[in-house]
Amino acid sequence: MNGTLLLRLAIAFILLTHSIYGMFDNGINDFGNLYLNQIGFAPFGVVIAWLIKLSHVVAAVLLIVNKYIKLAGFVTIFVLIMGIILVHFKEGWFVVGGGRNGMEYNFLLIVVLLTVMYPNGFRKNIV
């Protein structure tokens, strides 16, 4: 175990709950059909939506077992950045309070993922 265990478990929980819920309430298909297809990803919107959610499930498992952390992090960060660009940026910063559906939550997840991916910072350790 390392010092990132709690962060890895928290991110895994968030990714799993967000993904699995959408698998059972038709949210993934709706996101693909009613959003992605409408903004130019047709006819691949549903496939892209499912790939996003499946990547979250895989990333969550990898974070839990502490394997391929950087790969899981890079893929998830890419998805989160695209979410900011396509969905959240136009709504502003705040998720609630000062606005609605903003980008602050994605920003926090990105920073936490970077912390898990690089627990000793970005510089090489000097011995």
From TrEMBL:
Q: Which keywords fit this entry according to its UniProt record?
A: Membrane, Transmembrane, Transmembrane helix
Report the principal subcellular site. Answer: membrane
**A Pfam family assignment:** DoxX
Q: Transmembrane segments in this chain: where?
A: 5-24, 44-64, 71-89, 105-122
Give the location in the cell: Membrane
The record describes its membrane topology as: Multi-pass membrane protein
What InterPro entries does the entry give? DoxX (IPR032808)
Could you identify this protein by its name? DoxX family protein
Give the species this sequence originates from. Flavobacterium psychroterrae
